[in-house]
Design goal:
This protein is α/β, with parallel strands linked by helices and 221 residues long. The protein is built from 7 helices and 7 strands, in the order E-H-E-H-E-H-E-H-E-E-H-H-H-E. The protein has a 7-stranded mixed β-sheet with strand order 3-2-1-4-5-7-6, sandwiched between helices. The radius of gyration is 16 Å and the shape is globular.
């Protein structure tokens, strides 16, 4: 059994970017965990942030449950104002050392959403810091992540190095995304996600539907 962790900026980024691959990990018997840097409270034009801050983590838990995942962590940083700072870096180092993943999924560096780009920077620093002794975080032991893959959300990859066939689990990926009712009611992310996955599958020849990744580091998957 391998250990897998996805660190994402908002609830639903995990489903959009790597939901199919996470399902495949679950089906292979891997332990999968998801960490959300924000609660996504700025993600609606009709629901007040204080209310949405309660709704979206619950939607994320239900969506993760559809994937077969029950290990979720919410850091609660401010949605739309995620900052590259010592605290989030240390929190990601802590979870890397606690979960000790063989594979880590992160946002891509060139995503148009500022929270996504900052999440990438936070994760890159945490990946650098987690193996060393200069981050003295109480109760943790250093950990080197063998494989790090960057997924696409708002901005499609220009040059993906890895494409994963998710044809057999595409329906479940979409089912999970539809649990994010506060989001798909105003923007049909499910249609966009299905279209991108179809494009990736056709253009790569990997399968009918696929997810694409930039390879930051790769060990034994």
């Amino acid at each position: 059994m391998k250990k897998v962790l996805a660190v994402v900026a908002h609830p639903d980024d995990d489903i959009i970017g790597c939901g199919g691959s996470l399902i495949e990990h679950v089906l292979e018997g891997d332990h999968v965990a998801i960490a959300y840097l924000t609660s996504g409270e700025s993600g609606s034009s009709t629901i007040a942030p204080d209310e949405l801050k309660k709704i979206r983590p619950e939607e994320a838990r239900k969506a993760a449950g559809v994937l077969g995942i029950d290990d979720t962590t919410f850091f609660g940083y401010r949605d739309g104002h995620l900052m590259y700072d010592a605290d989030p870096v240390n929190q990601v180092i802590r979870i890397l050392r606690e979960k000790r993943p063989d594979t880590l999924y992160v946002h891509a560096a060139n995503d148009l959403h500022s929270d996504h780009r900052i999440a990438h920077e936070i994760c890159m620093q945490a990946i650098f810091g987690a193996p060393g002794n200069h981050y003295g975080i109480s109760g943790t032991r250093p950990w080197h992540v063998p494989t790090v893959l960057a997924f696409e959300v708002w901005t499609p990859h220009q040059n993906p190095q890895l494409v994963v066939d998710i044809t057999d689990v595409m329906d479940k990926k979409l089912q999970a995304l539809l649990e994010h009712k506060s989001q798909v009611v105003q923007t049909r992310y499910d249609e966009a996600v299905e279209g991108l996955a179809r494009y990736r599958g056709v253009m790569s020849g990997a399968g009918r539907y696929a997810e694409a990744f930039e390879v930051i580091r790769i060990g034994k998957i």
